[in-house]
Every structure is written in structure tokens, then in C-alpha cells.
Amino acid sequence: MKPPVPIELSAEEAAFVRGLVLYEDAEVLALAKPAGLSSQGGRGQVHTLDELLWAFARPGKARPRLIHRLDRDTSGVILTAKTRPAAGFLGKALMARKFSKTYHAIVTPGAPEPRGGRIDLPLRRVEEGREAYMRVCEPGHPDAETAASRYRTLGVGPGAALVELDPETGRMHQLRVHMAAVGRPIAGDPRYGGALVVGGHAVPRLMLHAAALTFPHPAGGRKRVEAPRPADMAALAAALDLG
Prior knowledge:
Layout: H1 11-18, E1 21-24, E2 28-33, H2 49-52, E3 65-66, E4 75-81, H3 84-95, E5 100-107, E6 116-120, E7 123-128, E8 131-136, E9 148-157, E10 160-167, H4 174-181, E11 197-198, E12 201-202, E13 208-216, E14 222-226, H5 231-239
Parallel strand pairs: 4-13
Antiparallel strand pairs: 1-2, 2-4, 3-4, 5-10, 5-13, 6-9, 7-8, 9-10, 11-12, 13-14
């Protein structure tokens, strides 16, 4: 496989991505991805996060490699590896489900019932035109993929709730589909029935944030990295009195 061709970034782009750093050492680099930025493979003229990682490349060294992805409109912690051995180690750990991911989401029209629990519903991918969706399906469906998510309610306000979500599996759109399946779609997610206005407040985007990531470090032990809730989500949570 040919090495990726370096991408020349503007000074503004380099400064932007360097400002996203949450944690860095000799082997890993964790960033706070903003909503609206594609992890990889985005369409259009704007660079993806994967491309922006060239800002961290050093002469004769590889750029950091993404270990996992976040949906374009999801904000929060995303992990990269700075060396080939670290990338191999972390990739295997991810496949072995040794990563622990914690998300925060604003859902409507209130808290799930019960307020905490586990959602174990298989999913299947459905293509509709140029768009891909995930749908809940029967376990025996030939395209079924096992999917499980844990949740707990952190705060409740008029017509909305703030929930913590911990995916046990990593299916596309898993948390979004699971919350919709229990009647509590994530605000700002019209694809799966999420409200665009809550309590008289416009929802600016998908209210899903990767708040923390815990993973085995290539040098030993486990590392936890947290990303503060972004301003738009914090403002909506405050306006809805969700804490």
C-alpha cells in the first residue's frame, strides 16, 4: 500500500486542529472533534479531520492515524495513534472491545422508562438512494448485527432529558437508533425522529457528544480522556434545566 500523499494545510487550518488537542504523548493523540467536521471521507471542499492530521506530521514521520470515527454531527473525544506499533495495538484493542466510550445526549420528550437500563436490539443497514440508515430488526434476519447500549438518566426537564450512553458494540448510528427505538430519539436528529425544537428552543444540531474515552495505552495501563460539553449543547441543556 502506498503511503498517503501529504496534504498542504493553511496556517488557519493547522492552528484550528492543534487547538483541538485534549491529550498527547509519544504514542497517542486525542482530539475534541467539533460537530460538523467529518472524521473521514467527507464530501465537499472542506478538509476532514483525517486530512487535518497532517498538521501533526513531522519530517520523515507518519501523520497520526485515526483509531475510530465519530459521526459528522457528533462532537467529542476521538483517538489517533502517532506510531505504527501504537496504531496496531489500539486497533486490536478496539476490535476486542477493550475501549470504554461514554456519550451524553439530549433526548425527547422526557426521560426513558425505566430511567436506566440496557437496550439489546439487533440492527441492520438499509440503503435508501445515496443515504444509509440503520434499522432495528429481528435477531434471525440475515443482515442482523448484534447491538447493545447501556443508558442512565442524568437530568430531566420539561419535555427533555440528559442521558449518559455507553455502547457495548460499535454499530453505525447505534445510539441514535437505540434511543429512537425506546421512544426517546436524540434531539436534532431528524433522520431518526429527533425534535428540531424543544421547549421553544431551536436545536442547532445532533445533541450527541462523546464525553469520555477509556482505552488500554500502548505503554501499559489504561488512559481516560474527557472532552468538555460543547457550548451549543451546554446552552441547550441549561435552557432546558437539564444540569
